[in-house]
Amino acid sequence: MTTYVEATSKKKRMHGIIPLHGEEGFAGMRKAGALTAEVLDRVTAMVEPGMPTDKIDRFIYEFARDNGAIPATLNYRGYRYSCCTSINHVVCHGMPSDRPLREGDIVNIDVTLILDGWHGDSSRMYAVGEISRKAERLIDVTYEALERGIEAARPGNTTGDIGAAIQQYAEAERTSVVRDFVGHGIGRLFHDEPNIMHFGNPGTGVELKPGMVFTIEPMINLGRPQVKILNDGWTAVTRDRTLSAQCEHTIGITETGAEIFTLSPRNIFNPLGARAA
Ligand code: MF3
Ligand code: CO
Ligand code: CO
Question: Which of 95, 143, 146, 169 has its CA 20 to 30 A from that of 121?
Fold first, then answer.
């Protein structure tokens, strides 16, 4: 059974209890989401051959500090960076380092900023110079998968409808969906109820209600879905070393559908934003 509670005072994740946010929460999430999206827009120009990802991390740290925000990943369960930078066959949780980006790399940059206590969580793919056609196709499929997931996110549908929309599309495109990491409720907490699987069956899971706030963040592989974690305890890679891509928005369920809190202000990351002319 699922219980829903008005999200006012809840301070820690409670299993099976889903917070429902009101206008104050949505207003806070709009601001946190907009700031996260802005920094993801701003790092676009930094993604070039020769750029080490720890310089991008530093930029994100300073941007957050200068705007009164805190990167949620910094010191989170021992993680030491302001973002995750996941390159090529890295699925997620890649750690920034002094290794320079190389022509042809694809990199996911994932940022969560806390502003006034509210968490905005988003990630996108960035191409380093010219990339292969298969890498480009993987990114297109991943963005479309996120769009289909968001389109399924409306009152009366279930979390399973979101997962099913993503999985059916990704597999029809002969790609695979990672099972080991999921989207999550978010708000005053970084990771809250419910889990949002990126696979599954229509009509299963939890019913979506206005006021729910969560991320959708599919990880899509060109090869098989299995992952392994490297010895650093964080970096997740594809077992078969094929390319992986991811993208993430933070959304809130409204009376009629979903509001996306992390839309790109410059419209350079498009899932369900206004299309550039
Ligand atoms: N931003 C990631 C997410 O979407 C979480 C990263 S946790 C970290 O859930 F510790 F790896 F940074
Ligand atoms: Co997330
Ligand atoms: Co994230």
Answer: 169
